[in-house]
Amino acid sequence: MRTRIIVSLLLGTALSLGAGSFAVAQDKTVKVGVLTDNSGLYSDLGGAGSTLAAQMAIEDSGMAAKGWKIDLISADHQNKPDIATAIARQWIDVEKVDIFMDVLNSGVALAVNNVVKEKNSIMINTGAATSDLTNAQCSPNTIHWVYDTYMLANSTGRALVKAGGDTWFFLTADYAFGAALERDTSAVVVKSGGKVIGSVKHPLNTADFSSFLLQAQASKAKIIGMANAGGDTTNTIKQAAEFGIVTGGQKLAGLLLFITDVHALGLKVAQGLNFTETFYWDMNDATRAFSTRFAERMRNKARPTMVQAGVYSGLIHYFKALEAMGGNPHDGAKVVAKMKEIPTDDPLFGKGSIRVDGRKIHPAYLFEVKKPEESKGPWDYYRLVGTTAADQAFRPLSESSCPLVKK
Amino acid sequence: MPAELRYNNEIERERSIDMQALYAQLLVGLINGSFYALLSLGLAVIFGMLNIINFAHGALYMMGAFCAYFLLNLAGIGYWWALIIAPIAVGIFGMILERTLLQWLSGLDHLYGLLLTFGIALIVQGLFQNYFGSSGLPYAIPDELKGGMNLGFMFLPIYRGWVVVFSLVVCLLTWYLIERTRLGAYLRAATENPTLVRAFGINVPRMITLTYGLGVGLAALAGVLSAPINQVRPLMGADLIIVVFAVVVIGGMGSIMGSIITGFALGVIEGLTKYFYPEASNTVVFVLMVLVLLVKPSGLTGRAT
Amino acid sequence: MTVTADDSIPLTPRTIRDEMIAFAIMTVLLMVVPLTGIYPFFVMQALCFALLACAFNLLIGYGGLLSFGHAMFLGTAGYISAHALKVWGVTPELGILIGTAGAAALAVITGLVAIRRQGIYFAMITLALSQLLYFIYLQTPFTHGEDGIQGIPQGYLFGVLNLAKPTVLYYVIVAGFLFGFLVIFRAVNSPFGEVLKSIRENEQRAISLGYKTDQYKLLAFILSGTLAGFAGALKVFVAQNASLTDVHWSMSGEIVLMTLVGGLGTIFGPVVGAFVIIAMQQYLAGFGQWVTVIQGVIFVVCVLTFRRGVIGEIAHYFRLSL
User: Fold this and answer.
1) Do the Cβ atoms of C282 and A87 come within 8 Å?
2) Is A268 on the interface with B (CB under 8 A)?
3) ipTM, 2 decimals?
């Protein structure tokens, strides 16, 4: 009788202990959602490539072998905040998505940021430029991974002024992002000892920049800063070549350029351009290895942009955090806190860390576009000109208006 | 030199620099205007002759530019031949569209033609975007037209000068063809009174198809012309389409000369806006449209519907 | 401008009965949605667009006036409501009222300008006015440009209904939609509606009968614009943001598409059309690149073979009035 009681007690304890640990270790399910622009202006920056990067991250992480079940879904937000928030809500409520990746387009990113915070999910934003995501709109559920307007302005502006470009003229796209880029870069230029001698605002999606380029030419500024993106930037660069701006001695500074833009322009037109990125496929062996594998699976053999690389890198780190926690608690803020504890180390961005305001820190690279003779083949476009260290590239915490930062 | 004279000289020089900038903007505006005129020509032909509001115009313009790109990169055929081949190729595509889709709408309200061509535009742009991405493809200015000349008040790229001359010639030729030749007369008659014209033994459906092909070809021609200066992108026509519409509406839907004049005028007005209030340069065309439509409902020179 | 609408079926008690039955079915279906597994946010969004499409249809299906600028009403009401709710901190019912009033004011101003022209010129003027408004909204700081107004609070409607709860919000939106729908229904099936239809069929004759057609058209325009604004104000609670996409001309194009697919000139057509298009956007988002192409194909197919739209074809086949 006593033995039976003891045995049942022991069994009971063993079972309850076992059940307790089962409850934590059991939930090894993760659902990843890639919310990007598949059909519009930014589809080359993220799009199908971001989904592919996510797929590769899941495969490379080896999580499946450790007993994890990871699902991946993706959707096109069509650059509309309405559609993005509707998809975000549906993904969290119905599809049980744990983490949002990419989310290109600043307006969309801010809208999704609110939904993610409200529902305690996670967003690793690799595509949007607005530095507000880690400033006034920062949240314990969001990590801003690859770049932002402050870092771009800081890196490009400072480096160019130091190299002798001390007078600037801005060609700005007339919307919030363009204005923010111009404002941030002007501040850096002035702080570094340069002068802003003029600027002109052009409507978004302008086809012809002749008038604006003429004004820039007449200003005789040493640097013409292009505070615009996408088709506007490529058109500006193409037409600047026509008007002999660069041969006339002025330099063009791209404030937001991607390798896909350079590819679209061709080296003959794009040569000599200076701009900042945080990832380049040809930097080192690790990036090259990843990029070759990526290109094989991409439709036109394109190399990864920094946005797509960020998706891969971000997911690798997310999985690391989950492994460290032993299971998926399906609690966004908790996992993000864990991600901030662990320093980041991945083959694409190297060593870095995530700050308390959600900003990921890594070095910023200033590139110059090669001349056609210097390039050994397609996608061999950049030459590294300078590096800004991780702790200097981004907005310092002391200047942040993020409520998460304790002053 | 006495102080007052020196002072006056400096004011003169400053004012003349401002005038120089203004002249430069006006010339640039004229160049853009010629482009608008050429682009809206095809639309005016199609509406004037066929009463179809061709919303696919932007997509067809884009196809012309892509055609030029393919001719160069796949077949090694350069710009000059592309100016002839691309419009014909895209024009044939347009004629196929007309035969298979548009002809079922003859006699129906304008609205359906607009919606159908809008749908076609979505399909064409969507397909191109799927296969070519959004960033675009490079197309260089042909060697013969590279470089520029210093006009004193500005540096004029030779290619831009070529654009003005070429557009003007094509516009005038088209106007002459439609308004002054016998073929043009047949076309105009066939669309005004098809039954009567058919009674004369003229193949009316073929005339209509040819007219649509002509309009489409003109759009593609504008595309080839623009490929060296604008990035060849799938969405390059989508942004231009409503401006082109505005030009045709202001000029008078159905009047070729109206569209030509308005195109040039708009270019100049836009150029001035870019100098004084650049942010509004995309919108000034709509202000113009509202004003013109209120004062003269059928446009500057158009006939009333 | 003649548009195909099967008004050859005269307005008899039987047709009114058909419409009332369809209305009852629609109401019941909407009421039970939260009990099924369907995700309520999708239905709420579709309802806002359904009301918008119905308002647009009032103008074109019954008035014969194609407006290419209806997005301006959606966006104006959206922005004004959003600003009122977020910055001035008004209660939800006041926010909706202010937004709708804003759209109404806009409808009066633009209507006075646009009504003087017909046909394609009317469409072009509305497009131009909408673009002007887009530009104004882009420039003014209160809209925050392309970031839009984000994080709009939902609050308590009439002080008791907690709009943050999805089910409560759902029924509020349904109520709003049904109210707007009934207004349109009443307007169409009334002497005013009859005069409007006669203007659409033959304006000269209506004038010769002594009707001041411009006034009727203006009234229809104002009604249509106000209801479109009401839909926009409701949408602010669903999406919790107001952005530039709401005022862009491509949004106006989508409204046309919804009404076309559902059936121009039918009362229930725009509702069905809105649901179809919104469903397509949501559930095909996973197909990514093909959404634009598919939309284009639907346009083409609808115009060529399906001109009466879904409801229109059903109504024609069964000889109902819907």
Assistant:
1) yes
2) yes
3) 0.80
